[in-house]
Design brief:
The complex is a heterotrimer.
Chain A: H1 3-7, E1 11-15, H2 22-38, E2 43-46, H3 48-53, H4 58-64, E3 67-71, H5 77-85, E4 91-94, H6 95-101, H7 115-136
Parallel strand pairs in A: 1-2, 1-3, 3-4
Helix pairs in contact in A: 2-7
Chain B: E1 14-17, H1 24-38, E2 42-43, H2 46-51, H3 57-62, E3 65-69, H4 75-82, E4 87-92, H5 93-99, H6 112-131, E5 149-154, E6 157-162, E7 166-168, E8 173-178, E9 181-186, H7 188-194, E10 197-201, E11 208-209, E12 214-220, E13 224-228, E14 233-238, H8 240-244, H9 247-251, E15 260-264, H10 267-271, H11 277-296
Chain C: E1 6-10, H1 17-33, E2 38-39, H2 43-47, H3 51-59, E3 61-66, H4 72-79, E4 86-89, H5 90-96, H6 109-132
Parallel strand pairs in C: 1-2, 1-3, 3-4
Helix pairs in contact in C: 1-6
Classes of the chains: A alpha/beta, B alpha+beta, C alpha/beta.
Amino acid sequence: MSEDQARKPMVGVLSCSGEAEPEGTIARNAVRLVIEKYRPGVTTSLCLPLYLAGDGGEREFARKYPVISVDGCGKSCAKLATEKYSGEVERCIDIHELIQEWGITQKLSRNHPGDVEKEIAERVAGEIVREVDRLTGE
Amino acid sequence: MADSRTGKDAIEIVVLPCSGLDKEAGSASRELALLLSQRGASIICPILYQRSPKRYEKELSSRPLLVIDGCKTGCASKLAAERGLKIAKKLTVTEAAKQSGVEAGKDPHLGKTLAGLLPSMAEELLAVETAQAPTPAGTRGQFSVVVTYREFGVGKFIFRVPEAGYFFNENDCWARVEGNRARLGVSDYVQQSASDMIFFEPPAIGAELSIFDEAGSLETTKTALDIISPVTGKVVAVNLAAVDAPELINEDPYERGWAIEIELTDFDGDRELLMDCPAYFDYLKKKTEKEHADLYGG
Amino acid sequence: MSAETVYIIPCSGIGKPTASVGREAAYRVVEDLAPAETDTLCLSLLTLGDPEAREKVRENRVITIEGCPKDCARKNVEASGAIPDLSRRVHDYLKEHRELKPESVMDIGAGGEKLADIIAEDIAAEARKLLDGKGD
């Protein structure tokens, strides 16, 4: 275990960028909720475009710390990117699957998130937080 | 040596025009460069420079550089910034023409109206040549020693500190000292914390600065901050590449992203208040770890 | 949708408010200002080799919108084997409109909204120019 890991547990959360689908926007918003509001200091967001471009410390971080990928759809870009450049993810959250599981059928907006989209983002954030707590032993 | 056509003294400068072919302003940029070449200036072909930068290495290292952009896309400025060139002055044809109430056209042929403004644009560009002290031959190659770095991580952030040759104050600003000159800038910690630089406003050349004085101001997408001078002296140069492209300070805060150059007047006295590289490394490590702990606990 | 489409691809970086502005601007172009001429697609699909995404950018025009000077959208498009026709940085617009700084990643605020509008108008115009054969 590195000196960093011994000092404080940290979890990386990597959201898909999902411009084309509303679930992509929900993924981004859920991740921001986790790192800003629910588990600041313990989690850090990893920027997928930077990750793919190979810039920044994202890939390095993902090699050292556990990563939760949050994907908008079954194409699983965030999970695949992590596996390609850094290693296995600890957990992959598929928002499209969750929405089906929760029985949400209405059409969602990708750029004008309303109450429904916000509520889904909160529920997804809850799923992420549960996973973060499991990984950090809270 | 006087120019035989104009009778004026030949000028020792290098000009980098844009190569815009699809607009009148691009043609004007080329003609303006040709006007300056009639006065003795050397022209850099931007396309050749991209492919074979060594061709112009000698001129660029010994003469001030003037940049001419046809329009606000700023291709020539961006090329100069990418190569880390120090720009003595730049002119954007469309902006200069607007000041005279002239709009550059879409037709790529140079019209009479815009052509008529070129001599005054040339004089405007040349005015800086006397305002800036040329780099003395003895300082050529200064600040070109290869810099090596140490780094440490906090979370996903990795901070770099040079191993030698730099001196830091507690505002995380540095002075890179060589001989009686110093270049000043902000540390990697500052550029990461403050986020993307969008403006850099330097002090005027000739300004006298004391240690702790403001040595330029920066604005980022997140905040505004001052560069606090770690040393005392007179401003002899400003990094115009960083003025034009402040993101240089993010990309390369210790080398190409330098802010100003100072002729030192009391470095022995100033040095007592500064940290050398190893001391700053330890200081910064403790500071960032404490900040993280204060924000997030643990 | 016309025969040729201009794909507007923002970087969608999650760490900076300016990346949120870029994403918002892209949506305004493809949904409000030029819905018949433009579309967007997921940058990560492209970079990870999705055949459908790659075919779209190879057969059509591409404009990238960069949330910061790291130019991830352009780099990732190039890594997938295509070359953007145009690349615009949110920062360059912010330099012209200093007062319109976005507030945060999740809520870009009134300034950010206005900046997104300005960017969207410009990008929509550039997209039309590309389709008319008069682009950069």
